[in-house]
Input
Amino acid sequence: MTALLDISDYRLAFDGFEGRAHVLDGIDLRVAAGESVGIVGETGCGKSVLARSITRLVDTPPGRVLSGHIRFAGEDVLAMDQRALARLRGHGVAMIFQDPMTYLNPVFSIGSQLIDVIRAHDRAAGQRMRPRVAARAAAAEVLGAVRLPEPDRLLDRYPHELSGGMRQRVLIAMALTGTPRLLVADEPTTALDVTIQAQVLRLIGELVAERGLALLLISHDLGVIGALCRRIVVMYAGTVVEDADAAALFDRPRHPYTRGLLAAVPDLARPDHRARPIPGHIPNLLAPPPGCRFHPRCPLAVARCIAEKPALREVDGRRVACHRAEDIAA
Amino acid sequence: MILFVLKRVALTGLMLFGLVCITFTVSNVAPSDPAALAAGPDATRDMVETIRREYGLDRPLPEQFVRYLGGLLQGDLGRSIVTTRPVTQDLARYFPATLELVLLSMTLGVLVGVPMGMVSAVLKNRAPDHATRFVAVSLVALPAFWFGILLQLLFSVQLEWLPTSGRLEVATPPPPPLTGMLLFDSLASGQWATFGDALSHAVLPALVLSFPCLASILRVNRAEMIEVLGSDYVTAARAHGISRLRVVCVLALRNAMLPTLAIIGLRWGWMLGSTVLVETVFDWPGIGLYAVSSAIAGDFKPVMGVTLLIGLNFMIANLIVDILYGVLDPRLRTAP
Output
């Protein structure tokens, strides 16, 4: 099976005043058509940068691709010209972002912003851009598709007049105006109230199923990922440390970091059982630790972990980047 | 919105009153005797006293102030001792020339400053950006009177491309008066030769007047554009495949224009003030030159009139800016 999205050995750094930060260090990730994959990791582990790299939203400079490639439907994203990139962004990969307030332009109406996107997609598809009046009907239609009431009236309103949940639905509508095959959702519910979170997650799940989209859901919240994804990729400090079926990962984590992450989740069923945070801090990416980037915080680290960077390898029906994966009790 | 405008108009009235108090006080503490200056060096005591009485300068200051205020309310700014005409008449005659100059300079400042700021922001920290910023800093730093004379030396004296001063050649027939702005009037009546002549006279003073304004618009617009281009909604617009041109020139610019607009409003008032220097250098018969020649003659009613007119203009400009803010930013429209 050829993957819809195929990222291999992708290394990305940012050049700044303090030197070069190695933000992504050899990412390997494949997503098949129609598959739902979750990416989980701490703040600053490179999840969002990875998501933005897929549609080349990371500016270079200051970003710099050191190695690797990103292919979408067989096409090399890193080699695309502006036309191909516009087509990819409209009709290949759609994105939903974290904070729906800051990701909507405050001075344009909802309708105006949707119409812009619709017209951009027309052009990317090689068609004539439809006039703004004609695009308005299409805009109302996508607002209806994300279950927003009275879409026609909503078109003339501005972002600040909407609630957080409504704004996130508008952003989802925007993402779905083209004909995407992969939906990348970067922390789509983090800025929302818990009750709204559940609604938005359900909506994303329904839309992905209706349209047969592949989903790449990025979150630091295992619960959010568990609700929508069959497969989970765990990232740590710019590397993929484990890539497994959700059930297997929750049951038998094979990477010490995944194990620590699971232990850090409070368990409501056992309130006396305190959540155990992982000791230590995320590493400084300007001077990342040699070998395995997790070794300074790892309870199982041995000399080899400092000397040699562990590659992703098959263990127990999954991929793990740890020299001691076999030693971790199932 | 209407309530907002009414409130602002009321506030403008209050500010004008403050301005009147200040200008009146300042012009009366100046150690000169307008009556003696008007009468000339050979005048007798009696003649000076006659003039003093005629202009009410022999009255106590508070009484003069009340009379001045009373006149103001009826649209009377007093009478110029030098021109012997009512100040309002003089202002009506000289103000169009100044307005023409300021409008031209402001148009230049906005039309050049805003796009250059945008280009500078898009090419941040690359060669064109550094060059633009260097030019911008230099333009702010050049004093208008010195730079104006330098340009006159180069373009008028050395190269003989442009006239040194004035608004029209003596031989050129002025257009039928419509607004008093020669460029506009000559265009409206289709007198192309006159328009060309008026434009060639206006180029240098307009340039000198516009440079500091252009530079500050550029710098503010650049800074705002850089901030807006780094914002989340710009990232989102790019992620949705909207063209770079539309993102920069429409979606980002409208956000960046808010602070730029504030600077334009401030610079408008500043420019009217600067005409005092620029009009003197280029012998441009506007209110700046009028104020200077009146001040030299110790004739303070015109100076006060000019100050009030500039102040009023400044307040109106800022009122317009505030209204435009509401047009550009929907968040301000619904705000209480």
In short: The two ends of chain A are 30 Å apart (CA to CA). The longest helix of chain A spans residues 194-211. The longest strand of chain A covers residues 19-31. Chain A has a mean pLDDT of 86.
